[in-house]
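Dear Dr. H.,

I hope your travels went smoothly. While you were away I took the liberty of generating a structure for the chain from your last submission, since the lab meeting agenda had it listed for discussion. I wanted you to have the full record in hand beforehand rather than looking at slides cold. The sequence, exactly as received, is reproduced here:
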Amino acid sequence: MKRQFFVCLVFTLLIAKPCKSQTNQRLNQTTASKDAISELQHNMPSEKEFSGLLTKADEKVSNFEAAVKHAKPHLDKVESKYATNYLNAAATAHSLISKTIKNGATAYNLVSVLTTLDDLSLDAANGSAILLAADGDQVAKGAACEIGTRDSVALSSAGTSCNDIAELIFHATMRLIAAEETALNKLLDEQH
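The corresponding predicted structure, in token form, is as follows:
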């Protein structure tokens, strides 16, 4: 009888030990997961940060719009489609920024905003070059330089501002994507 009892006791201890180990392992995983989530949340940009960046971006787009409207008479002398296209791009940027502020910052929305801001920077550079070339042609013909040079500088400055805010949004977007990818990888790892 003692022998049966001893065998039962050893068997019970052997069975109980892995269960206790599994419980401890799960507790450790849960603690590690909570720590990982906490670190991810710490590294992830907040909605407030994105909202601030996007509000600044909207201001930069408005400055770009104002520069284009001011330069429009000079751009129209070269080709009327330039100012129209630039203003349409600004309207698109305003729309995307507004949508992202309203619906929240997702990687998809942010990349759309970044692409549009990049387009505005390129438009500003092109517009600036067009205005400088037009003024150069006027001077070459012996005519006085028009106000296009000042408009060129204003467009260039507006484009630089769009580029600068896009860079800040880009860095925040990369932090968001990195945190989301890390979280997804951890989730997938835990399921395997």
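Two observations you may find useful: The longest helix spans residues 148-191. The helical segments are 2-43, 47-78, 80-103, 107-140, 148-191.

With kind regards,
E. W.
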